[in-house]
């Protein structure tokens, strides 16, 4: 049995989400969520995106070194993840996009189990 610390590592959560079908990596560019897959590049407006779940991680040596991993589902069924730093180190464009998504939905359902 894994200890709680190991279970909550970013790598292990990403593996679990990947096995649950969250296989795309996303980034935010020009106010839209984009797949990082160069072959089938897609982009989405905030209203086409749902935050299914999110996980916070603190840095081992510095509590200010915190990041958040979001499990995302798009209107066309594409599922994946995007991460962002928390607080002063956050990417402003990613942070702004995810706030719009959260404000639109307020539906953090954990339906991927």
Topology:
Elements: H1 4-7, H2 10-19, E1 24-29, E2 32-35, E3 43-44, E4 49-58, E5 66-74, E6 79-85, H3 92-105
Parallel strand pairs: 1-6
Antiparallel strand pairs: 1-2, 2-3, 4-5, 5-6
Organism: Hymenobacter daecheongensis DSM 21074
Protein name: Phosphoribosylpyrophosphate synthetase
Write a brief caption for the model.
This is Phosphoribosylpyrophosphate synthetase. It comes from Hymenobacter daecheongensis DSM 21074. Helices cover 25% and strands 34% of the residues.
Description:
This is Phosphoribosylpyrophosphate synthetase. It comes from Hymenobacter daecheongensis DSM 21074. This protein is α+β, with helices and mostly antiparallel strands and 113 residues long. The chain has one domain: PH-domain like (Roll), CATH 2.30.29. Helix content is 25%, strand content 34%. It has three helices and six strands, in the order H-H-E-E-E-E-E-E-H. Strands 3-2-1-6-5-4 form a six-stranded mixed sheet, with helices on both faces. The radius of gyration is 14 Å and the shape is globular. The relative contact order is 0.21. Mean pLDDT is 84; it is low at 1-6.
């Amino acid at each position: 049995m894994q200890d709680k610390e190991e279970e909550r590592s970013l790598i292990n959560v990403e593996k679990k989400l990947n096995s649950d079908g969250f296989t795309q990596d996303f980034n935010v560019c020009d106010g839209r969520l984009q797949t990082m897959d160069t072959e089938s590049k897609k982009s989405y407006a905030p209203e086409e995106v749902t935050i299914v779940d999110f996980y916070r991680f603190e840095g081992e040596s510095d509590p200010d070194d915190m990041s958040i991993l979001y499990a995302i589902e798009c209107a066309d069924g594409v599922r994946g993840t995007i991460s962002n730093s928390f607080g002063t180190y956050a990417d402003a464009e990613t942070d702004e996009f995810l706030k719009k998504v959260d404000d639109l939905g307020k539906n953090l359902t954990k339906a991927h189990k």
